[in-house]
Design brief:
Immunoglobulin-like, 21% helix, alpha+beta, globular, four-stranded antiparallel beta sheet
Length: 222
């Protein structure tokens, strides 16, 4: 009987150790992850236990088949803790383009899973101030019932953001106004210009800003 008890305890301890290791190596898979360490994803800074909002989002949507974190523009654009700053801004990598190593200003890193930990708007790294035109992939995609479209403009421009059907029919004008340089997020709730819910299918969103024009595909799946 004792033999089986020892085997059981050994398996439990091995599982716990494996769990801790899997959590610790993920620290190095997000920009500046070593600053807040396990507190980036867990309520407890010691690791393990309940995940915070950032950790939950990673667990749900941003792990590959090997259990590694997939850091990309979509995850960087999300504001997991709802404090008004995207995960990328809090981790000093707002674009989501990162291949390891130091990035941004580590002294300005805050916790993307803690709404009480957020940047001082006057101290956000200059990397946040874009110098290019960018239209990001919407998220989530496919979506139901709403999705978020993010874009960046490097200077003040009159910006048009519109939704089209796969046949080129204008479905909804999301935005038509002058904007200052910066990064913006707009939502579409799957409604047309008249407030009617559109059917499932493929749609395109298109941005025009000065001489810049780009479009991307999205899928409404009900």
């Amino acid at each position: 009987m004792k033999k089986y008890i020892y085997i059981f305890l050994f398996l439990i301890s091995s599982f716990s150790a494996s769990l801790l290791i899997s959590q610790s190596f993920r620290v190095g898979q997000i920009p500046n992850g070593g600053i807040n360490s396990c507190a980036n994803c867990h309520v407890s800074g010691f690791g393990g236990g309940p995940r915070n909002s950032f950790g939950q989002r990673i667990e749900q949507s941003f792990l590959n088949s090997q259990g590694n974190v997939v850091w990309n523009a979509q995850l960087a654009n999300l504001d997991s803790d709802g404090d008004g700053f995207s995960n990328g801004v809090e981790l000093q990598n707002p674009t989501g383009i990162w291949s390891g190593g130091p990035v941004g200003d580590p002294s300005k890193v805050t916790n993307p899973g803690d709404p009480l930990s957020k940047p001082n708007p006057t101290s956000i790294t200059e990397e946040v101030i874009t110098n290019r035109y960018v239209l990001y992939n919407n998220y989530p995609n496919p979506f139901n019932p709403s999705t978020t479209i993010a874009f960046e403009i490097p200077k003040s421009e009159f910006v048009s953001l519109q939704i089209f059907s796969i046949n080129g029919e204008l479905i909804k004008t999301i935005l038509q106004e002058s904007l200052n340089a910066g990064r913006y997020e707009k939502s579409w709730n799957g409604e047309d210009e008249y407030g009617n819910q559109v059917v499932s299918g493929i749609y395109f969103y298109r941005i025009k800003a000065g001489h810049f024009e780009n479009s991307r595909r999205m899928i409404l799946l009900k």
